[in-house]
């Protein structure tokens, strides 16, 4: 869901850095081949992710929710020269195509692509991360946050997507997913160990810095 007016969104994308040819290809093929193409980060959010990653210049990134790899490549753009990005997804059908994208990006050797349930894979990663991006099944966002917070260095970032949930978090919506996202936002708002702010980008991007 796009929170911003479509004309403003067009203006924002026209004034930020352009997508690479590969990212344009991934976006086009995602919209042609996937039943839920709206799950892709897209041009503007992709540039936000790339910029935040570049500012951190992470040695180690964790992404929970790969989908077609668009955001993965955007995050990889900020990696340190010998940095590593771990990305987790449970969709085996996309594996071969996404691997091709990674190889074409020039970051393939720096990306570890894990196929499986994130709740099972995360405990096996014995690393301290500089940057974490959570964009998977929303019902587990709070679980993911609690699992990764101790794996993030002081000063590191955690980014969580879809935290405004089509604007439902501000409305009288009581469905289970909306309640789960409200709970996540409230939990993090009360967490004194982090700085936090929600950016109204696409469906809401929560930016968290560990103190």
Distance from first to last alpha carbon = 31 Å
Using the alpha-carbon principal axes, give the shape.
globular
Largest sheet: 7 strands, mixed
The helix count comes to: 8
Low-confidence runs of at least 5 consecutive residues: none
Strand order of the largest sheet: 3-2-1-4-5-7-6
Strand content: 15-25%
Q: Kindly state the percentage of residues in helix.
A: 25-40%
Judged by helices, strands and strand pairing, the structural class is alpha/beta
Q: Give the rounded overall mean pLDDT.
A: 95
Number of DSSP strand runs: 7
Radius of gyration: 16 Å
Order of H and E elements: HHHEHEHEHEHEHEE
Layout of helices and strands:
Layout: H1 6-15, H2 21-33, H3 42-56, E1 60-64, H4 70-76, E2 84-89, H5 95-105, E3 111-115, H6 118-121, E4 129-134, H7 141-148, E5 152-161, H8 176-189, E6 194-199, E7 205-210
Parallel strand pairs: 1-2, 1-4, 2-3, 4-5
Antiparallel strand pairs: 5-7, 6-7
Helix pairs in contact: 3-4
Describe the structure.
Helix content is 39%, strand content 21%. It has eight helices and seven strands; from the N terminus they run H-H-H-E-H-E-H-E-H-E-H-E-H-E-E. The chain has helices at 6-15, 21-33, 42-56, 70-76, 95-105, 118-121, 141-148, 176-189, and strands at 60-64, 84-89, 111-115, 129-134, 152-161, 194-199, 205-210. The mean pLDDT is 95.
Task: State the main characteristics.
about 210 residues; alpha/beta; 7-stranded mixed sheet; 8 helices; 7 strands
In short:
The chain is built from eight helices and seven strands. With 211 residues, it is α/β, with parallel strands linked by helices.
